[in-house]
Amino acid sequence: MSAAVQAEAAAVQRLLNAYLRETGIALDPVRSTSAAPDPQAMTVALPRTRAWLAVLPTSLSPTGHHRFSPSWWSSFGDGWQPVTGTRVIDLLVSEVAAADGDEDRRTARRERLLSQISDSVARTTYFLTAELSGRVRPPVPGSADAFIAAEQALRTGHPFHPTPKSAQGLDGGDVERFAPELGVAFRLHWLAVDPELAATVTIDESADLPPLESVRPEALARLGGRRDEWPLLPVHPWQAAHLARLPQVECLLQEGRLVVLGPLGPIVRPTSSVRTVWDASSQCFLKLPFAVRVTNFVRVNPPEQLARSLHASAVLARLLPHLSLDRLTVLLERGYRGVRPRTLDHEAAQDLLAHTAVVVRDGPDLSRGSPMVVAALLEPSACSGVTPLDRALRSAAAAAARDPAAVVDTWLRRYLDVSLVPLLRLLAEGGVALEAHTQNSLVTFEDGWPAHLHARDLEGASVDRSHPLAAQGYGGVLRPDSPALYETDDVWRRFAYYVVVNQVSDVVAGLARSSGVEEARLWAEVRECLLTVAPQLPGDGCRRVEALVSGPHLPAKANLLSRFAERSEDPLYVAIPNPLRTCVE
Questions:
Q1: pTM surpassing 0.85?
Q2: Quick one: which of 55, 53, 47, 163 has its CA closest to 95?
Q3: Helix (H) / strand (E) containing 578
Q4: Which residues contact 224 (CB under 8 A, 6 or more apart)?
Q5: φ/ψ of residue 204, rounded to 5
Q6: Residue spans of beta strands (DSSP E) within 76-115
Q7: What is the pLDDT of residues 42-86, one digit of tens each?
Q8: CA–CA–CA angle 490, 334, 463 (5° rounding)
Q9: What total number of domains does the chain contain?
Q10: d(CA 197, CA 241)
Q11: Same domain flag for 350 and 450
């Protein structure tokens, strides 16, 4: 298939699966024989607009990870008519919009969402074209460059998101220079900051963030003697141009309190989040502010998020040495530096900090192998349709001289042993749940077998305020008003979504497709794993796991409904059937 056809099919699949998950509407056999589409087709009800869609599944999933052929039909009760993917998107968005009783708002939001979907499809087409042309290649598990190749391989994106590749604010030239999906690399721009303006915060109370000092020898030649000790601040090249247009920054530049140094230092590579870059010279990630709306959010670093990241990192720095989680590494965030003038009012100062603060994050230990971001494992090649997960499973099967279907249960159990089990133990024993979804989790392989997991991005970590360790503030590093603290039910709910629904269910669905086995068989393995670990957990961990396994529903983020309602900061959630229960009954 051409890049355009693949991109449109991927967009319809994601939008349709999100719609089915968030409405609870089921796929049903075709009911009408009048001008009926393919006999294998299934129907989707659009009750508010009194329409029907017919789609042709190539695989069905009990957790909603359905795959479809790029063939679609619609009906308004007068027989089936073939339609384009663009028309399917329009029908689905119109159905969602019909629930909004305010006509003006409904129309405006519908048009905005359709525009964002169109933007996402256009970018996906561009990225798939790059792969089909040979400009970029899919990652190979176990290869020396698997780590960065996987970081830059998410060409279709989140499986339950209507706009997984939208990036409002980046034009075509920006995409060519800065899109990780195109395999790009670039130098960061740097600023020297008057010490009175610089805000530097670290988890160990030092003022030292070594990766931010790496360019000082180059900077000295441009600074002059009286500024040679000024703190240095890296800036994404796109953000550098954006900052120069902000009145408060323009004023500081004119006063000489910020000095533009231009591009300096090593080449860095943008990763799957677009705005976070990998600096191989320091073996660190830099989480940069980037005032572009990538999917749901404008990707700056607000003070509350900065505080949550560092508070969670400080807790984990104290906690992890006392836990035996040898198959899990949490990549800590060591600190941040930004610009926060005391002369601005509070709101303006906080806004400028959000647009300038750079977070320094640990990198993975590459001496143990080249880890791959889990989201990239599930991305099919535009050329072959094969996923890196397919390759890993086949490699493991070949090493065992067996068929993939014969080793898939063992493969899954090993994956759970490096992901679900240590993440669960960290929650039960330490009271910390990580936002370990597929884009925040990196897995290392040995001969195709999962061997180690790295978890990252602690802005989404949640610390249980009622855990026994919280009574002492986790060794005095947390105050009762910390934004990292959540109620116990919320912490476990976040674990259920980010780890079980987002990460494990995606891997299970991918393994089922790769091996040809039923998902129910694999969910039985997940259930057995949880029930085996549960009695070993302290406190009410066992009861919580038993409730997770036996409950009728699990939480899922409603990306489509939230995107339409423009609730990026406060997303909606829905309850979905719990495969840990339904797949084994």
A1: yes
A2: 47
A3: none
A4: none
A5: -110, 15
A6: 81-83
A7: 999 999 999 999 999 999 999 999 999 999 999 988 888 999 999
A8: 15
A9: 2
A10: 20
A11: no
Judge contact between 428 and 535, C-beta under 8 A.
Answer: no
Among 525, 532, 543, which Cα is nearest to 579's? 525
CATH number for position 440: 1.10.510.40
Same domain, 348 and 398: no
76 within a domain of the structure (yes/no): no
Q: Are residues 284 and 416 in the same domain?
A: no
Rounded distance between C-alpha atoms, residue 315 and residue 312, angstroms: 5
Structural domain for 534, as ranges: 367-582
Q: Of 154, 74, 77, which Cα lies nearest the Cα of 120?
A: 154
pLDDT in tens, 237-294: 999 999 999 999 999 999 999 999 999 999 999 999 999 999 999 999 999 999 888 8
**Dihedral over Cα of 335, 340, 345, 351: its sign:** negative
What's the CA gap between 379 and 10, in Å, rounded?
11
Look at the chain and count its residues: 585
Contacts of 230 (CB under 8 A, 6+ apart): 192, 193, 194, 195, 198, 223, 259
Same-domain check for residues 217 and 331: yes
How far from chain centre, in Å, is Cα 43? Answer: 31
Last residue of a domain, one of 362, 382, 406: 362
Instruction: Please indicate, yes or no, if residue 380 is contained in any of the structural domains.
Output: yes
User: Is residue 94 a part of any domain in this protein?
Assistant: no
Distance CA 530, CA 525 (A): 9
Is residue 395 a contact partner of residue 142, using CB atoms and an 8 Å limit?
A: yes
